[in-house]
Design a protein that fits this description.
Strand order of the largest sheet: 3-9-8-5-6
Helix content: under 10%
Distance between the termini: 65 Å
Structural class: mainly beta
Number of strands: 9
Shape: elongated
Radius of gyration: 17 Å
Length: 117
């Protein structure tokens, strides 16, 4: 007799919800550097937005295994550039890479990155 077993293991959630990169640009397309180099283990980044800019373009590249993304709690298309309005001298945005599969967990897993402008 020959038998075959298929073992399903849940993903390593910490890796699945990590971002691979964060890129912030002014509306004219020039890159705005963070206060430190990107490290998926770090959750907070600060950016000095030059001049009178009222918005920035934010691109967060979530893991290829992530199933969703949110900005300030609102679902947005995963791995697409988002425009963030800067409404006061200091603006903070929360970007989440998310993973949900009811086969492995009844709740969504996520990692939040806090971006200060």
């Amino acid at each position: 007799h020959e038998y075959a077993l298929r073992v399903l293991r849940p993903p390593v959630y910490e890796k699945v919800v990590e971002a691979a990169a964060i890129d912030v640009r002014s509306v004219d397309g020039s890159r705005i550097k963070a206060n430190r180099d990107f490290d998926p283990g770090q959750r907070t980044y600060s950016y000095h937005v030059p001049g009178e800019s009222s918005a920035v373009k934010v691109f967060v590249s979530c893991s290829p295994f992530a199933t969703g993304m949110a900005v300030d709690g609102k679902d947005v298309p995963i791995n697409e550039t988002q425009t963030v309005e800067i409404e006061r001298a200091s603006t903070q945005v929360h970007v989440q890479c998310q993973y949900f599969d009811p086969k492995y967990s009844s709740i969504a897993q996520e990692k939040t990155y806090v971006l200060h402008f």
